[in-house]
Amino acid sequence: MTSFRIRPRFKQLRTEEPEVIENALKQRIDKNKDQFTGIFIPGHITIKINAQHRHFWSPQLNLSLENIQDVTVIRGLYGPNPTVWAIFFFGYASLGIILVIVGMLLLSQYMLGMEAKLWWVIPACLVFATALYIVAQIGQKIGASQMFDLHHFYEESVGEKVSIL
């Protein structure tokens, strides 16, 4: 899980009904209230680090449970708090919009035979995008131990090893 993947995920097939899996996770979270907390919606579970141990880079595990032909398909997605995800999305989206606008201006000026003065914006945006990526990787490394804790907690809850895709 310490690779360059932005949001590690897994897929697991279980023979139990989704309700049985949800109850097992509820019981495990109740036993580990000091470390984990959970949000349960039918067919969806979010497991978070308890607020006492949570920091800006703390991950969470989102599980979706779907019953398909007597088999429960569990899809797990590790990711940051939605606020952190939104900050990075906004950063990349802003850089993309700036690049498109500056690109149109530069192309217009070039086609009109005018001197283009905004070429410096393109490398600046690329530097900011690279910086955002590096900050995200550093944040992922800061939250890595809690991600491992979440993963081991989930594996112990279902009683089976799960490979991250």
Outline the structure in words.
The protein is α+β, with helices and mostly antiparallel strands and 165 residues long. It has a single domain, classed as Alpha-D-Glucose-1,6-Bisphosphate, Chain A, domain 4, CATH 3.30.530. It has four helices and five strands, in the order E-H-E-E-E-E-H-H-H. The protein has a five-stranded antiparallel beta sheet. Helix 2 runs antiparallel to helix 3 (121-142). The model has no long low-confidence stretch (mean pLDDT 92).
Compact summary:
By secondary structure, the chain is an alpha+beta fold. The chain has a single domain (1-165), classed as Alpha-D-Glucose-1,6-Bisphosphate, Chain A, domain 4. It has four helices and five strands.
Distance between the termini: 9 Å
Radius of gyration: 21 Å
Pattern of helices and strands: EHEEEEHHH
Low-confidence stretches are none
CATH topology: Alpha-D-Glucose-1,6-Bisphosphate, Chain A, domain 4
Q: Per DSSP, what share of the residues sits in E-state strands of 2 or more residues?
A: 15-25%
Question: What is this structure's SSE topology?
Answer:
Elements: E1 9-14, H1 18-31, E2 36-41, E3 44-49, E4 59-68, E5 71-80, H2 82-111, H3 121-142, H4 144-158
Antiparallel strand pairs: 1-5, 2-3, 3-4, 4-5
Helix pairs in contact: 1-4, 2-3
Features:
single chain; 4 helices; alpha+beta; 5-stranded antiparallel beta sheet; elongated; Alpha-D-Glucose-1,6-Bisphosphate, Chain A, domain 4; 165 residues
